[in-house]
What does this fold into?
Amino acid sequence: MKLNALLHWPRTLFARLALILFVGLALVQTLSVWLTMTERDQTMNNVMMGYIEREVTSSVALLDHLPADERAAWLPRLARRTYTFVLGPGVTGAPPDANLSARVAQSIADGIGKRYPLTANAVPGDPERLQVHLQLSDGTPLTIDYRPMPGAPLSPWLSWLLVLQLVVLAACCWLAVRLATRPLSQLASAADTLGPDLKAERLPEDGPDEVARAARAFNAMQDRIKSYMTERLQILAAISHDLQTPITRMRLRLDVMDESNEGIKLQQDLHEMETMVKEGVTYARTMHGASEAPLRIDPDALLDSLVLDYIDAGKDVSLHGHIATPLVTRPQALRRIVGNLVDNALKFGGAAEIKVAALQGGEVTVSVFDRGPGIPAEALEAVFEPFYRVEESRNRGTGGTGLGLAIARQLALAMNAALSLHNRPDGGLEARLLLKSAK
It folds into this structure.
């Protein structure tokens, strides 16, 4: 398995940067606390060693000068939190091996060892406990019993302060990463909304230099794309207009000619040329964007009207289901999409069946079914490409111009809808249009 999978590495840039910053700052904060506590303990130990050296030296000197019968009364007065004095030989043991005990023994030795010979040993069973043995001037044995203090107690508010620091670090990381990644989110949203209509919102060209530069580049890219698309549409429109005139002249000449097989074939070719020119311009317009404004319509009435038109023309088209709710969409684009799908169903299956249904969340499905041969699974997406036809013969008598589905897909994208094709298990094809009501 990859390391990312083992660590459950976040997928978003926001989460990754926030995690890296927070973990890094938390580790630095932990190291800083550890160094501070270590330095604090070392400083306190150094102070304590000097204190013990002075206090023990003066206490031993006082006991040495007191009469023997008064020394026991002074022992409680000379006791401290970490050590006491005992008039007696104490207990014996091994030399101290604990670091703190060894330092205490050395400190006491430095203070009184030159005047009073002494020995030091650890108390059996407690390696940190220390006893120092010496004799006063009159030969009385004296034992210094040392019990180390585990360290200076921490203030009760320190743990809460550390937690508060972590919370502040997390908030600062979140804010910093949000400010850093927000322009990327805005850029991604603007790119996602840049559809065939080329009406994506322009990014604000402010903020840090890098962000402003990226926003200006994206806005300039939108302007260039719109200019290119407009120029292409104008070229196709001009070609279409110029071709209409010679096509009309050729048709008029054919009308005055005697009917023959060659004349009929030429008439069909002229019709195909005219159809291709019109559909090419239509496809270019859908790529450039739909100028139709969304309207609140009754989709059941629109589809019923469309089906009646086909029935009046003697076509086998039926409608099943009801949406039963108004829909805000582009009615002419919807009519064109469904019409193209029905035309394909009639062309390849001889009949078309339309089924509609309203889904939860305001979505609507319009499905067109046929009983034709279907489409190979690997070509279900390819047929939406311009001028693509499944027939290897490329016979336009059955394959058309190859623009019908491309036009339908582009219109669907402009409507914020999804158009897909699915082979039916029992034969035939389903063209499914998923609509969302416009906001």
User: Anything to note?
Assistant: Residues 159 and 314 are 85 Å apart (CA to CA). The chain has eleven helices and eleven strands. Residues 194-289 form a domain with the Helix Hairpins fold (CATH 1.10.287.130).
